[in-house]
Design brief:
about 270 residues; alpha/beta; six-stranded parallel β-sheet; 9 helices; globular
């Protein structure tokens, strides 16, 4: 099953087709307040605890199990990777393996930045969890994806906004809590493949660099943080990959998929994956 990231939804039909061609049944979920699950009047992307999404994952997998009862592989991107790792720690027998695509496992700037930022964010969140934080908004990542700019993907504006969702304090506080939990160590009992780009640019990167690097997260920092997930972690660096490795240029995403399928063949042969 595939799980998207923050301010995102599932749109990658070539990935679904390629995974199914490899012998896996492919399913994807749009988490609450995202994509097809977003309802009028809701705050896009908002949860005050990441484990609210655990209910979404449980519900989706229960439906999938009606047709495919085998223990699933779960693939998850960015904030979805953080959420899924925490879910798997709470439910150690729910997945046979995890594939984490540029997972957001560590706060920008590392533990020191989290220690400084978290108390202020939590104070705001206690006062008003829906208060929007005045963070910089840039569109390099959207431009690298969208067929309206430099990318190749037809994105639904209501579900994948050019500037990404505004950031409520309550949501960011939940993410920072998740980073703290990962830093303490999750001891996941299942094998974990972590895919990251070979270079990062972060939001101030040039448009040219944005086409072949992760301009959202630091791949090096996420690779380091991945070691806190458990003993069975493999980190695979993908040359020229975007923040969403599987939405990168065709040769890049094909190489990443080949690496993923080779790893799965050894750890979780075809039963159900995403």
């Amino acid at each position: 099953m595939a799980v998207h990231g923050w301010s995102d939804y599932f749109y990658n039909t070539p990935l679904a087709e390629a995974v199914e061609s490899a012998g896996y049944a492919f399913h994807a979920v749009d988490l609450r307040h995202h994509g097809r699950s977003l309802r009028p009047g809701q705050t896009p992307g908002f949860v005050d605890r990441l484990d609210r999404h655990h209910e979404d994952l449980d519900a989706a997998l229960a439906l999938i199990a009606e047709d495919h009862p085998a223990t699933p592989v779960v693939e998850a991107h960015s904030t979805g990777g953080l959420t899924t790792a925490l879910w798997a720690a709470d439910r150690p027998e729910a997945a046979s393996a995890l594939v984490l695509n540029s997972p957001w496992l560590q706060t920008h700037g590392g533990p020191l930045a989290r220690a400084v930022a978290a108390p202020a964010v939590r104070r705001i969140a206690r006062r008003d969890p829906y208060e929007i934080l005045p963070l910089p908004r840039v569109d390099h990542y959207w431009r690298s994806l969208s067929a309206e700019a430099d990318g190749e993907w037809d994105l639904e504006p209501a579900w994948r906004d050019r500037w990404a969702f505004a950031v409520p304090a309550g949501w960011l506080a939940a993410v920072l809590d998740g980073h703290t939990t990962v830093a303490r160590g999750l001891d996941l009992p299942v094998p974990v493949l972590v895919l990251v780009s070979d270079r990062g640019g972060l939001p101030l990167a040039t448009r040219r660099r944005a086409a072949s690097s992760d301009v959202i997260l630091s791949p090096r920092a996420q690779a380091r943080a991945a070691r806190r997930l458990g003993p069975g972690v493999v980190v695979h660096r993908c040359p020229g990959a975007l923040h969403d490795v599987f939405a990168s240029a065709p040769p890049v995403r094909r190489a990443a998929l080949d690496a993923t399928l080779s790893w799965l063949a050894e750890t979780a042969p075809p039963r159900i994956a995403g």
